[in-house]
Amino acid sequence: MISGKHFFTALLSRARIGIEVSNVKVVMNNEHENPPGTHGLEGRYANYFKIGYNAFEFLFDFGQLYNEDERAQFHTRIITSPLYAKTLFSLLRDTIEQYEQAFGDISNENDNSNQRVA
Fold this sequence. Notes:
The chain is α+β, with helices and mostly antiparallel strands. It has one domain. It is about 20% helix and about 35% strand. It has helices at about 80-105, 110-115; strands at about 5-10, 15-20, 25-30, 50-55, 60-65, 75-80, 115. Residues about 1-5, about 5-25 and about 110-118 have low confidence and may be disordered.
């Protein structure tokens, strides 16, 4: 294990997400249509996230947590450089702004009851 990591974990609720990047709109739903360039990718639902970092990399863990479970079940880990983590942050921020323009503000009313810090 790498020493000096800092972690933040949050529990989020399920939502249908639309992403628009470079004039390409991708709508994630339950249909069996795959956008171009995604053949062979497996979609996994996540409502529990853990983010860690050290001087050289960021770690993003994705998993599921339900009220009846005591522990989150993680299924995916992404490791990337600080530069790409910041790029992801910027892309996510821009995409959320576009989502809110299209569908309205995302409610923060449950933030206090659904956040967990590891």
